[in-house]
């Protein structure tokens, strides 16, 4: 049973969700910084 | 005392008289809509829902609930966001828009929650959750009913100092102002719960809503989307009010300050849309909806997410950075259409998407939905032209 489980498939595991969360966190910081350097 | 009461009645009667021109473009459009709408409503109450709507046993919720209630309440969210910023965070910049926003929120709840009565087969039963006749503790509608009622009261308390100022009751105004912070905190608590509660209403309809729009996280999505919806409505309403009621604004009202308010709201809207967009993305991946995006429903879903969530998010951010009021106004309009689309997709468009006899609203339903909005704008106009809504009150 265990042999048939593919650990590296991000579609089968929650890998894609974790990656999206990380993208969101990094993206949110970049997005916030974007507002800080607005034109005077 | 008698003289005061007489004076008061005389004053109210004089204030009820119409002011300004009668034949304005707005009046010419809305008067026939309201007149026709009232006839349809009367006909509906005499002959029942089936006589004017296309609703059925399968499609029990139509345009009035989907548009007026489920969508309208999202746009009233500006009130809890702005009052939170002004009274809790003490950001003084937004103080000049707080009264108009609370009035708009209050009227939205009165009219949109009131529109529920139109959609009930037995409207007299609307009182049941309040009087204890079959409370229905297990129903989300029980929460929504009580929250709507309590929030209307809380918003009335928040707005009441303006009424006292209009009636020149200084002592009453001072007392009512002392209640404001309590009413605001109570109102925010209620808002957070029932904005998400509206989403929870659809959780029991898992098999009826298209999988791309159904999610067990609907309450979170409804709450998250209410923030950009409310902020966008505040921007749009402010834009229209400043043009239509420009004479009512104080002479010293600074254009620069107003623009700073809009930029602040735009930043909030951009950040909240960014968060909402990622909620949509993570729910899409978590639900493994890849197989559902191959048909027209998938295209429709991506139009909503990219065109009406991601696009206005970028426009708001660009508008803020480049100090472009025009771009921000356009973004607010697109956001409003997008949230409207999302709520209608859940409650009407994708509801029983696989049923060959799909529900399409009748022309009478459109007229009544427009009538509700028209009357709300008429009342808003009556209040702002009488009461000091756009003037800064001094504490």
Characterization of the model:
The complex is a heterodimer of chains A (40) and B (395). Chain A has 40 residues and is an all-alpha fold. Chain A is built from one helix and no strands. Chain B is 72% helix and 0% strand. In chain B, helix 3 runs antiparallel to helix 12 (325-349), helix 4 runs antiparallel to helix 5 (95-119) and helix 9 (218-244) runs antiparallel to helix 10. By secondary structure, chain B is mainly α. Chain B is built from 13 helices and no strands. Chain B has helices at residues 2-16, 25-47, 63-75, 78-88, 95-119, 128-131, 140-166, 170-200, 218-244, 255-286, 296-321, 325-349, 363-386. The interface between A and B is medium-sized, with 13 and 15 residues.
Estimate percent helicity of chain B.
over 70%
Average pLDDT taken over every residue of chain B: 90
Low-confidence parts of chain B, pLDDT < 50 over ≥5 residues?
Answer: none
Percent helix of chain A: 55-70%
Shape of chain B: globular
What pattern of helices and strands is seen along the backbone of chain B? HHHHHHHHHHHHH
Share of residues in strands of chain A:
under 5%
Question: What fraction strand of chain B?
Answer: under 5%
Q: How many strands, which pairing sense, and closed or not: the largest β-sheet of chain B? A: none
How many helices of chain B does DSSP assign?
13
* Tally of DSSP helical segments of chain A: 1
Calculate the terminal CA-CA distance of chain B, rounded to whole Å: 28 Å
Number of strands of chain B: 0
Name the pair of protein chains with the most residues at their interface, and give those residue counts: A-B, 13 and 15 residues
Question: Tags for this entry?
Answer:
heterodimer, A: 40 residues, mainly alpha, 1 helix, 0% strand, rod-shaped, B: 395 residues, 13 helices, globular
């Amino acid at each position: 049973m265990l042999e048939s489980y593919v650990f590296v498939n991000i579609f089968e595991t929650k890998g894609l969700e974790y990656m999206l969360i990380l993208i969101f966190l990094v993206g949110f910081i970049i997005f916030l910084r974007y507002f800080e350097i607005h034109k005077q | 005392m008698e003289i005061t009461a007489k004076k008061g009645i005389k004053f109210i009667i004089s204030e009820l008289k119409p002011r300004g021109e009668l034949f304005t473009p707005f009046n010419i459009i809305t008067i026939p809509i309201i007149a026709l709408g009232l006839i349809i409503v009367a006909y509906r109450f005499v002959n029942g829902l089936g006589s004017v709507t296309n609703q059925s046993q399968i499609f029990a919720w139509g345009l009035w609930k989907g548009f007026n209630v489920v969508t309208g309440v999202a746009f009233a969210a500006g009130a809890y966001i702005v009052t939170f910023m002004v009274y809790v965070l003490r950001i003084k910049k937004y103080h000049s828009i707080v009264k108009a926003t609370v009035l708009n929120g209050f009227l939205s709840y009165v009219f949109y929650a009131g529109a529920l009565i139109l959609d009930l087969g037995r409207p007299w039963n609307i009182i049941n959750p309040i009087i204890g006749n079959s409370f229905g503790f297990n129903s989300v509608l029980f929460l929504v009913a009580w929250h709507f009622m309590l929030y209307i009261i809380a918003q009335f308390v928040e707005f009441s100092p303006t009424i006292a100022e209009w009636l020149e009751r200084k002592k009453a105004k001072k007392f009512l102002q002392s209640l404001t912070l309590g009413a605001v905190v109570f109102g925010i608590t209620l808002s957070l719960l029932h904005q998400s509660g509206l989403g929870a209403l659809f959780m029991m309809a898992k098999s009826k809503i298209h999988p791309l729009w159904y999610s067990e996280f609907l309450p979170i999505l409804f709450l998250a989307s209410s923030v950009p919806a409310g902020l966008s409505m505040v921007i749009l309403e402010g834009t229209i009010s400043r043009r239509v009621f420009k004479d009512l604004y104080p002479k010293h009202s600074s254009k620069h300050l107003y623009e700073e308010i809009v930029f602040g709201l735009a930043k909030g809207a951009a950040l909240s849309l960014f968060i909402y967009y990622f909620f949509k993305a993570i729910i899409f991946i978590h639900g493994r909806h890849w197989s559902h995006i191959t048909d027209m429903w998938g295209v429709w879903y991506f139009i909503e997410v990219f065109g009406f969530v991601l696009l206005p998010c970028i426009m708001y951010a660009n508008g803020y950075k480049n100090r472009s009021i025009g771009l921000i106004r356009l973004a607010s309009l697109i956001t409003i259409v997008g949230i409207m689309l999302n709520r209608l997709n859940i409650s009407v468009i994708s509801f029983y998407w696989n049923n060959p006899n799909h529900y399409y609203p009748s022309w009478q339903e459109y007229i009544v939905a427009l009538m509700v909005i028209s009357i709300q704008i008429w009342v808003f106009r009556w209040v702002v032209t009488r009461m000091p809504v756009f003037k800064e009150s001094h504490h």
